[in-house]
Each structure stands twice: as C-alpha cells, then as structure tokens.
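Design a sequence for this backbone.
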C-alpha cells in the first residue's frame, strides 16, 4: 500500500479523499490528511448560514477517518523535504509520502493600511473568524466591511443579522466588479441600500483609527471622510497559500499560486496541488467548482487514469442579502466583436444581460440580478446556438418557457461537479434514479451550491417521472392530502393518524406538520396531551428560543394601537424581569431574555393587563400592521387602524403551513407596506383593494391584486376564503407566495376559487373560519389556568426555580444582551434534560 499525504482539510482536500476512497476498491493508497483548523472539513460556501442559526455540525462535510484514512485536525504542516519525501508538522510529527497533494487553500488578503491589526479588525474566512466577529458585534453599533465583492456583501449581511449598522467600502466604481458589470452593479447597489446597508464605491481605505480604549473607532477614506466603525471586516480578496511550496523550491506563479500542469502536477512529479493554492495556466481559481474538478483529476491520476484539467467554468449564482445575483460565461463581453442584449428594469428590480457572438447566434455569457430564475437554463447553453430570440430568453415569460428539453446532452447542468444533462439522463434510464435525491447520489449534481436543483426536477419530469409529494418517509400523502384525511376521518391524534394512514413512529418533519394540521382544524390547545410532544421547540414553550437559551415574549398589539396604561405595564414587566426590549417592524414590542421558569410569571402580569399571546413563536398570524389612516393622516381615505384591529382579532391564533403577515394602508402612499405581506389591504376612495401572496424573507415578493374596491364585509369574506384555501392546500412550510406560484393557474386560479367560487367551496371555507373565530382562546391564559401545563415551564424538573447556570448576560446600550456562554465542563442543558 502506498502512502498519500494531503495537506489541507478544506472542501477541496475533502473532495479528493472522498473521490479516491470511492474509487480505490483495491486499497492501493493509505491517506493521511493534515488540517490546521480545529475541525474536519466543512462547507465554506455556506459559511454565512452560521449567522442564520446553522451550527458547525450543520456545516460539517463529515469525518472521512477509517481503516485507510487518517485525519489530523489542529495540526499545521511546517516543512516539506522533497528529497526525503517527508512532511513535518508543528507538533513534530514526520509523515513520509509516495505522493503529496497540496490543498492548502488561501488566506484573506489584508491591505497594509495603518491600524489593520487593531482589536476589532477581522477577516471573514473560517468558523473561528465568524465567532470572533460575533464577539466584537456584541459591543458594536456600526461596522465597516472593506471590499464589495461576494464575501464582502455576505459579511455585511452577517453584521446586519448581528444587529450592527453595516457599511461597505469598495475601491471599484461598482459592487462585485469581478462578476458583474456597471449596470448590474448599479441595480445591486440600490437593492442592497434599500435593505439598510450603506454603500461607498470608488472609495479607498487609508487608515483604521483607534479610540481611547485602543480598539477600532473610525475608518478613514481617501477623500478624508471618516466612517464610525466599532468593528472592521477585511474582505478584499484572497492570496494562495503557497509558502510551504516556495520554501521547498516548487515553482510558483508571478502573482502567487503553486504552478500546475493539466494533470494538476507541480514542478515535482510526486507532488500535486489543487484548489485555491494552485495556479493553472496563470489562473488561480477562487471557486469551489474548479477545485472539485482538480480533485477529481488527481484522484483519477493516482489510480492510473488519464484525466486532465484544462480550465473550469467560473459561473456563479448567489443570493446576497436576499438579492439574486448570477454571472456565467463571458459575462463582461471580452470576446472580439461580441454583442450585448440588455434588459434593465429598475422599477421592477431586475437586470439581465446576454453576451452573444458577433452574428447573434451563439450565447457567450450573461449577468442576472434581481431575478436569476433563468440561470439554470441559460448557463448550460453557453457556447451553444440560441433556441430563439435572445431578448425573449431574459423576459419573465420567455425564460419560464425555456426548459431542459431545449438543452443538448453535452450541456453542463451542475457546474460545481461538472455534471452534464447526458449524465443525468443516463442516471435516470440506466441507474434507476427516480427523484432528486437519486440524481444527487448517482452524479453529485446539486450537492454543492444547489442552484441546479430546479433543472434536475425538469430532467426528471422530461423523463416522465412523477415527483413524489410525500410529506416524509412516514406518510406517502402530501400535507394537503393529510389535512383532508384528518378532516374526513375526524382523527384527533398523531398516533391514530400514523397507525391508520402512515408507517413507523414519525419524525421531526411529520410530527410538527401534523400538529399544525390538528391545530388548524380546531384540535384543542397545542400543549394538550399528545399534542405537546409534537411541537417544534418554539411552540412547545409558547415563546421563541433565542441564541443563549432564553426566550422572547411578544404580546399581541392589534394594529399597533396601544393605550398608555398597557405601555406602562410592558415597561414594568421588562424592568422587573430585566428583559431586553425592542420595537419590531410589525408594530409590536419584543421582550427578550426571559428564562424558561420566568415565562408564566411574565404572562400573568401581561394577561392581567389585558394582553394575550402574539403567536410570534407559531406558524400562524403574526401581525396586521397599520398606518394611522383617516384617524390622523390628512391623506388617509379609510380607517386603516380600525380595519387592522378587526382583522388581527379575527385571525389571531390561526394555525397555518407557515407564518402569516398582513398590513392595512389607509391610502395609496402605502405607509404600512401592505404589498410585502401575505395578504395586504390598501384603501381606495371606493373601499379596499386586496393583495395576496407577498412576503419578505429569502425571496422577497410583492403581493398581487386579487380584488379591488371592496366593501369591508366582502373584503373579510374573501380573506376568510383565501386563508382557509391556503391552509388546506399548501405544502409544509410553504409561504403564500410560493404556494400561488406553484399552483396550476397561479393567481388566476386563486381568484377563481376565492372571488368567483368556481369550486363551490366558498361557503365551506367561510364556515371553517367562523369555527376558528368562535373557538379561539389565548394560549398563554390557558397555560396559566392549567397546573399540568404550568409544570412544563421549569429549566430543571428536579430542581424547580433553579436558573439555568449556562445563561449569562452583558450590557449594551443600557440593555441586557446575551453574554459569553459559561464553561461548566458540560453542554448547556436543554429544558427537562435533568430528568432524563
């Protein structure tokens, strides 16, 4: 058995070991991996999801250690002796090799501006970097990201998620200059600015200045402007980690990177280099797809194959701060005599450009911003003849009509893993792949960035394979079918439903989904009996769990209208229980930092003052936001506050497939932002216009007009029908926007059902809503009246009243915020864990 040493345990090094393990059936190679980070390989592409709640374990690519693979983490390679064929590590370990692979990756480039090493300056590269940024953000109000490229915008979003006002400083005239052109950059700037990020382009960073405490205080720009900055994140590019190779005398490129040939071999034929450390034909690739391709070539070569690396697709599709951005092929139009076709819809928030050959018949590249839905189809067509008028391909109607059947078998569907349409078709017809998971297992397509998954579904449909709508492995039915089953059979428990209509014991997908169905159909309090064991964490304790294990309490404030006496009660509760308070965008007041055992006492004070649960923890109606309408505003044409209160009190507690938000604007000036809601109402001189299917989140979407100039009673009937139709037919965790988009006939079908009653179910839907309205009870008050339910609200069941010792706080802006977790030598206990 020969010895292979891999220096670097990032995504590309991991891919090499995985590919070799899958193919080396004769166990020709024993592999030793040396990685300097304190953990095994993780998904660096998805690193920003760490700020959205993903854990290090969620990002992990798995540990490949086994009989023929040794993985050493937290160990840095310090020397390479090519003559002796050994690698020495910082711990003094010496590893001999027959072949060596340098997968050392890259390091963030930090420009040598004065103050770049002050406390509060960070880079954005590893999980440890993100932990350090999070720690600094606890004491920061304003942060500056230097660099307006991909990682810079991700870093800016991270600061937003951490509650820090974010600025981005970019030397180039527009954002993401490596991927998109000036027109696309201008639109991206506007969309990002609308989200609250301050953009400074064409700006040089000349110094980071310290405050009296020695930490970062300002960033000085080339024009003399000073930006307040309590923390600074450098994201201005990467540099190949080629120091080990340089010291060993391997050839490196003029601008860095270990020089490799088409076999990914360095100037020493026993040493290969892959990923961001390698320079191939003068190019250092900073994307995962080329690195994966290099890893596959080296794995093949180690087993005697003849694979080569001749370059790679640098196309990319991203979602930055909720904005779709994609570029592919010759996006900047560098080919001789090429032609551009551009759609720049500033009002609609979308930009699209196709770069064509000089005879306008061949697609060379393109850029998409705001709406990148056509990317999956257009990118594989690069270098191929166009199937029609290029302008129609980047209009919504034309892009939607172009599918997988327009692509040749040679078209590369998954650029991350170099999978063609032909390979996918073969997986369907010869390897038995019958769903997306099967295609992923057979070809790796869709396992990296995931942008090609919609095209995988098209290929399956093209092959005549009907896609399963099963809720999970325990129920073959969809959520809508299960709801109808529950309704028709009168089933009231999960155990009865799975016994009669499912298999197994259930899982974390079907249990909360069925709990939601039972609650939607009036199945009693969500903590009654078996119901309590089915809920998601937040529903289980009628409060949102926060990052440090405490909970937030959000009382309902219908329409945002509140009396001074009730405001005083909220202030007194926050003061007495030392809670962090924040006014939300939905016109409510959040109280953060309540320990589990404090929740009933807090609820008691609020309920006695006339408050009830705001259901911020549930997949249910959150808020009905309002402007002041005719009550105060000189432009108002209807009583928006009165209607918002009526709607919120009517639909409070309504359980649904996903959360619901609403708003009422008293005139066309739209101060309540009704068109960004699941159902929004805007006043007219003749009555009310009803809009449906809007939402924020990862894919913001404006609601569309369902009906206009309605009187109040007709409006409420239509909303009743719309909400009940959604509850009965939507998939699990499907917001109203994608529900409408996925429906045959889309909004027109919804209008036919809700307004014209083409299915003849309007009366039934209205009756179901009336049952909900008349059966509503406040969930907080119901817990307070039931000793059995109250018993759930203790951090430690065998030591009632004992605070959780892992919870700590610090103070920011005169309010308590989560402090560093205490190290007690054991993991933080989960509620009720002490009794297990």
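Sequence:
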């Amino acid at each position: 058995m020969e010895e292979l040493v891999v220096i670097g345990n990032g995504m590309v090094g991991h891919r090499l070991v995985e590919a070799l393990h899958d193919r080396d059936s004769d166990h020709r190679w024993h592999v030793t991996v040396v990685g300097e980070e304190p953990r095994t390989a993780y998904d660096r592409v998805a690193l920003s999801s760490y700020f959205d709640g993903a854990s290090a374990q969620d990002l992990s690519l798995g540990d490949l250690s086994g009989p023929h693979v040794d993985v050493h983490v937290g160990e840095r390679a310090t020397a390479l002796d090519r003559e002796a064929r050994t690698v020495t590590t910082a711990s003094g370990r010496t590893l001999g090799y027959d072949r060596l692979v340098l997968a050392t990756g890259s390091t963030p480039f930090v420009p040598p501006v004065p103050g770049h090493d002050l406390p509060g300056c960070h880079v954005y590269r590893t999980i440890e970097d993100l932990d350090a940024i999070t720690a600094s953000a606890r004491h920061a109000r304003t942060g500056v990201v230097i660099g307006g490229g991909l990682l810079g915008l991700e870093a800016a979003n991270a600061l937003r998620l951490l509650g820090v006002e974010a600025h981005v400083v970019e030397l180039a005239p527009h954002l993401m200059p490596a991927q998109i052109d000036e027109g696309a950059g201008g639109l991206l700037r506007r969309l990002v600015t609308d989200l609250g990020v301050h953009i400074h382009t064409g700006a040089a960073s000349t110094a980071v200045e310290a405050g009296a405490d020695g930490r970062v205080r300002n960033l000085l720009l080339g024009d003399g402007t000073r930006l307040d900055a309590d923390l600074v994140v450098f994201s201005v590019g990467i540099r190949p980690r080629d120091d080990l190779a340089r010291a060993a005398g391997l050839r490196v490129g003029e601008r860095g990177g270990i020089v490799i040939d088409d076999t990914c071999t360095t100037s020493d034929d026993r040493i290969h280099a892959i990923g961001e450390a390698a320079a191939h034909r003068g190019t250092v690739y900073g994307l995962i797809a080329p690195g994966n391709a290099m890893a596959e070539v080296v794995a093949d070569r180690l087993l005697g194959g003849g694979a080569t690396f001749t370059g790679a697709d640098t196309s990319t599709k991203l979602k930055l701060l909720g904005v779709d951005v994609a570029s592919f092929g010759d996006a900047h139009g560098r080919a001789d005599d090429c032609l551009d076709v551009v759609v720049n819809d500033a009002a609609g928030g979308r930009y699209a450009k196709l770069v064509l050959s000089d005879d306008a018949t061949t697609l060379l590249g393109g850029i998409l911003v705001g709406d990148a839905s056509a990317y999956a189809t257009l990118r594989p067509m690069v270098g191929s003849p166009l199937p029609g008028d290029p302008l129609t391909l980047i209009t919504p109607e034309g892009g939607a009509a172009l599918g997988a059947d327009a692509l040749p078998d040679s078209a590369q569907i998954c650029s991350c893993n170099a999978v063609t349409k032909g390979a996918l078709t073969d997986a369907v017809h010869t390897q038995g792949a019958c769903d997306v998971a099967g295609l992923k297992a057979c070809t790796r397509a869709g396992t990296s960035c995931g942008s090609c998954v919609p095209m995988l579904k098209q290929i399956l449909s093209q092959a005549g394979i009907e896609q399963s709508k099963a809720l999970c492995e325990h129920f073959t039915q969809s959520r809508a079918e299960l709801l109808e089953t529950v309704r028709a059979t009168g089933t009231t428990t999960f155990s009865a439903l799975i016994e009669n209509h499912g298999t197994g014991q259930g899982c974390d997908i079907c249990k909360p989904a069925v709990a939601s169905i039972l609650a939607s159909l009036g199945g009693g309090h969500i903590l009654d009996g078996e119901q309590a064991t089915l809920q998601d964490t937040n529903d289980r304790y009628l409060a949102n769990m926060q990052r440090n294990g405490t909970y937030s309490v959000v009382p309902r404030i219908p329409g945002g209208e509140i009396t001074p006496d009730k405001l005083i009660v909220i202030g007194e509760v926050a003061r007495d229980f030392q809670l962090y308070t924040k006014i939300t965008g939905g016109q409510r007041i959040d109280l953060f930092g309540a320990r589990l055992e404090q929740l009933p006492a807090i609820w008691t004070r609020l309920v006695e003052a006339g408050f009830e649960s705001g259901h911020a923890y549930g997949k249910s109606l959150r808020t009905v936001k309002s402007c002041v309408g005719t009550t105060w505003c000189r432009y108002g044409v209807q009583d928006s506050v009165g209607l918002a209160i009526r709607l919120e009190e009517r639909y409070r507690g309504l359980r649904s497939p996903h959360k619901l938000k609403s708003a009422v604007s008293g005139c066309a000036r739209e101060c309540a932002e009704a068109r960004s809601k699941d159902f929004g109402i805007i006043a007219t001189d003749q009555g009310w216009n009803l809009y449906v299917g809007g939402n924020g989140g990862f894919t913001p979407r404006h609601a569309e007009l369902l009906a206009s100039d309605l009187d109040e009673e007709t409006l409420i009937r239509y909303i009743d029908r719309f909400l009940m139709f959604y509850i009965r037919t939507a998939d699990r965790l499907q917001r109203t926007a994608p529900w409408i988009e996925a429906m045959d006939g889309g909004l027109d079908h919804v209008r036919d059902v809700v307004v014209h009653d083409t299915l003849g179910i309007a009366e039934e839907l209205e009756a179901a809503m009336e049952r909900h309205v008349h059966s509503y009870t406040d969930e907080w008050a119901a817990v307070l009246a039931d000793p059995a339910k109250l018993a759930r609200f203790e951090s430690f069941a065998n030591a009632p009243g004992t605070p959780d010792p892992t919870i700590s706080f610090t103070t920011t802006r005169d309010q308590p915020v989560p402090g560093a977790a205490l190290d007690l030598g054991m993991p933080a206990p989960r509620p009720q864990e002490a009794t297990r």
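The first strand starts at residue 2 and ends at 7.
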